[in-house]
Amino acid sequence: MNQLSPHDLVDLADLVGAALERPVRLMAQPGLPGEALLHAYDEQARRVAVVRWAGDESAAPGLLDGATALATLEAHHHTSRLVAPRVLALTAWHGRPLLVHEWCVAPYPGRVPTRPARQDAERVVAELATIADLDHSYAGSLRSRLHALEPSAFGDQLLASLDRLATCHDLDALPRGAWHGSWSRATVAAGPHGTVLVREWDRYGLNRPIGFDTLYFRLDELRGGRRWWGAGSALVDEAPRLLARWHGRVVAESRCIALLLLLELAVRELGEVGPGRAPISWTADWIAPTLFSA
């Protein structure tokens, strides 16, 4: 999380308050590397907005991709099942992008959407990617992110896992789209009239294999809030059934896509907590054993 000075917090609160046309108080939250994440509260202590600022240039592309996704959903998918926060402001602050979007309160907190409703919403997210978004190598991007990690034996093992998958499958031939990045019971809730309320878009990404969100949701169910070592293996076993709806049939690459998701999550965590902590984190608990035995 990017630390903001008290003076910066006051300045930013004034800017956000002007966009919302009401005074607000900002509270810092854990955010992605290079990004400041804050929640805005009104004078009645109600959470009214989420504020994201790219404190580092490396965080700007992801923030702008997320803003584009929310704006596209509002403009072109307002009749779909998926309900996402509205963009309230997209501007620059200290020369880098600043995004303010509304805070969505689930009408039925904790109520999971029906499977058909959730699957419809997953398809809407996947289709947010344009042809231009998919016009580069997914495998190459993942490999670059692996190489960008702090050198470690753990990272080398992950790179070897990617090499094994690339030997058996044409990874760039896999159907790709956008993904929410954190599609789970904590971020997806049932809304009225069969709608699906989706929040926390800070991990949204492009050019990922179709079905990543489907698999992530099932992974969240398998883990059940516990660090269960068998969750990764169970996900790989269930992948053919889970991904069959995307293709109308069971596809041979299903288990490969599940392994790629685990690899993606391992790279994410290694980049955020570092190789020193990853061996005692959830990556070591159930992601790494599944990948390294594949």
Oligomer: single chain
Taking pLDDT < 50 over at least 5 consecutive residues as the criterion, the unreliable ranges are none
Main beta sheet: strand number and arrangement? 5 strands, antiparallel
**Strand arrangement, major sheet:** 1-2-3-6-5
Q: What is the number of helical segments per DSSP (H or I, 4+ residues)?
A: 9
Distance between the termini: 34 Å
One letter per element, helices H and strands E, the order comes to: HEEEHEEEHHHEEEEHHHH
Shape: globular
Specify Rg, calculated over alpha carbons.
19 Å
The helical percent reads: 40-55%
Output mean pLDDT: 89
Given helix and strand content, the structural type is alpha+beta
Can you tell me the CATH class of the largest domain?
Answer: Alpha Beta
**Strand proportion:** 15-25%
Q: CATH topology of the largest domain, anyone?
A: Aminoglycoside 3'-phosphotransferase, Chain: A, domain 2
Q: Which CATH architecture of the largest domain is right?
A: Alpha-Beta Complex
**How many structural domains does the protein architecture include?**
2
Strand tally is 10
What would you note in describing this structure?
The chain is α+β, with helices and mostly antiparallel strands. The chain folds into 2 domains: 6-102, Phosphorylase Kinase, domain 1; 115-293, Aminoglycoside 3'-phosphotransferase, Chain: A, domain 2 (Alpha-Beta Complex). It is 45% helix and 17% strand. It has 9 helices and 10 strands. The strands form 3 sheets. Strands 1-2-3-6-5 form a 5-stranded antiparallel sheet. α4 (138-147) packs antiparallel against α5 and α8 (254-273) packs antiparallel against α9. The longest helix has 20 residues, at 254-273. The mean pLDDT is 89.
